[in-house]
Amino acid sequence: MVRAELAARLNDREYTNWLKAGRCLLILKDGLLPFTDRHMRAFHGDLLNQSAVLRSPCRDSCKPRGNKLSGCKVCSEWQKAILRHHRQPDATVNWDNCFPPYWRTDHWEVAKAFMPRGQAKVKGADKCDAPALLNLINYCTYFSSVDPKLVREVIRCRNELMHSSEYRVTDDWMQHYWTALNHFVNQFRHVPEMATVGNKIDEMLTLNLSIYVSGLDQMDSGGLDDGLEVDFVSHKESGADVGQWEAELLEEMLQELLHAADEDTDSQTQDTERLLERFGYDGSFLLRDSSTVRGAYCLCVRKAPFVHTYRLLRSADGWCLQQDSTVRPPTFRTLEALIEGYRRAAVVGIAPLTDPLDKTRVRNSLGEEFLYMEMNNSSSSVY
Ligand SMILES: [Zn+2]
């Protein structure tokens, strides 16, 4: 059964396209990581050499509030230096990614100012994902050796991939993606760690995942003789790898959803719904940033055939769930308390919450459980 579901997915060419394209981003990230880390270290060293103010410690334990930072003299100087090296200083800079008192000692804390939202808890280059590195290269002028047009094209493809409906992309799309990756990777010919990236990407994109299916079928039918045993083992392992790839890609999607940008309201809402539809079950829920109100949250709960979204409102007394009713909803001191409250007691008009669909859950259980999930998702046709 499990294998049959995986086989069904791997027989869907456009789904395997999606999976392989996502895999390429991880290959790219591994190659880019040492380069961006070294480059940022050098950039950080240059900044420190140029300014005595930057070499002195933060005076006020400065902390961004939301996306704004009005820091001490030292942190303001760091802010100016970062903006001076930003390709789009007038665009939104995600100061809330950073802990300014570390700017003096940690080059990666500076790098995070050039990245998409959601980096605040990421400590160190090796914890970053592909879009974080790509955006750093795109926005920071210290990466002048890379043509920003080429990196932007890869970012654009990556965003299309992550928001593709039904987790599928066409062959034409793949061809374009391959070209974009090639052009981008060619910029790094002088970087030793990038030397094999182009080849690995080529291998991944030409890999035929449907060949695993024959092995999976044999396992299901139990029609094995001695001669097939070697094949059996290798297919089994490959199947497990593919399941792991799926889990990793999902983890990234989930991570992005939790910190989705404000401007893309519709696709963000759809992404949340798709994720819960496909990987959750009744009662699965996730908490995400509100796409329309910064600092507010939405609670999304799956109750087939729908994914219900509730806005969480903050008042002086704490948090409550916005409801279309005359009954005043209870207020909880913290978000955690609110969720616990609704998990414990069923409330009329609210879909019951059972399990959070969170990053840990994806990491720990989807790697295994993902294979058990339904491939034919009937609820997706409801919308
Ligand atoms: Zn400061």
TrEMBL record:
Keyword DNA damage: no
Residues that span the membrane, as ranges: none
InterPro entries: DUF4559, SH2, SH2_dom_sf
Gene3D superfamilies named among the record's database cross-references: SH2 domain
Domain SH2 residue range list: 245-357
A Pfam family: DUF4559
Claim: Cytoplasm is one of the keywords in the record: no
Keywords: SH2 domain
Domain of life per record: Eukaryota
Protein name as it appears in the record: SH2 domain-containing protein
Originating organism: Oreochromis niloticus (Nile tilapia)
Taxonomic lineage of the native organism: Eukaryota, Metazoa, Chordata, Craniata, Vertebrata
Gene for this chain: lg18hxorf38
